[in-house]
Amino acid sequence: MTLYIRRESSKLWKRFCSEITTEIGLLAENWKYLLAGLICQYIHGLAAKGVHYIHRPGPTLQDLGFFLLPELGQERSYISETVFTSVFVSFFLWTFHPFILKTKKIYTVLIWCRVLAFLVACQFLRVITFYSTQLPGPNYHCREGSKVSRLPWPKSALEVLEINPHGVMYGCGDLIFSSHMIFTLVFVRTYQKYGTKRFIKLFGWLIAIVQSLLIIASRKHYSVDVVVAWYTVNLVVFCLDKKLPELPDRTAQLLPVNSKDRTKEENHKLLNGNGVDPADWVGI
């Protein structure tokens, strides 16, 4: 038993080291795209905070979803955020599963480059939309009489550049369309294409539907925000996926050799989704 554990531990360690080496090579090639994607996440956060300054509370608009779904209320609003957090954490961990599991179909660096491209494109459209028309927020903290329904004007330039840590939960004005649904649908569609478990794919779409209903029930968004997110995100991902180079499809028993042993030309072939020569692959 001890010998078996040692042998398996040794295999796991070798696989982990091989993955690290490969991913570092890919990171060296793609760090600019990852950094640009993360900077855009920061800019999106600033934009969402900015619209809160000009938000004006008012009567909640007539909404079919509000008629059909009872309001969760302030005490149960955490349910929607809990589901979203579970989706985010689950997807994040899945993108790093090649470091541990033998079933490898993706490279972590490349999958996040693709995901960030989808997110940035959708968030760009979202910022344009919610700045075009500001709707009165339907959430309890955005209604008439709430102290946080409007942000006080910033007193310094530094304050403008600060991200409100409570903005995700207590933002107002950034409505059409739902940012939570952007992340959820991008994650679900990505796993739909690169995941391997059919039941998880079906479960992911079910969770996306449940998340949509919870967002409306918690009054974080109007129904239109969720509906627009469903067709906008799916169309954006579909179109970008056709334009971006396909990711290399990995087999369950093969790993690329150390990236430093590959030529720059071979690295570019790998990044563009073209397979390298079989002689450059070694078994675990």
UniProtKB/TrEMBL annotation:
It is found in: Membrane. Keywords: Lipid metabolism, Membrane, Sphingolipid metabolism, Transferase, Transmembrane, Transmembrane helix. Residues 171-238 form the Sphingomyelin synthase-like domain. It is a multi-pass membrane protein. GO terms for molecular function: ceramide cholinephosphotransferase activity; inositol phosphoceramide synthase activity; sphingomyelin synthase activity. The chain crosses the membrane at residues 78-97, 109-131, 168-187, 199-216, 222-240. It holds the Pfam family PAP2_C. GO terms for biological process: ceramide biosynthetic process. One of its GO terms (cellular component) is Golgi membrane. Belongs to the sphingomyelin synthase family. This is Sphingomyelin synthase-like domain-containing protein. It comes from Capsella rubella.
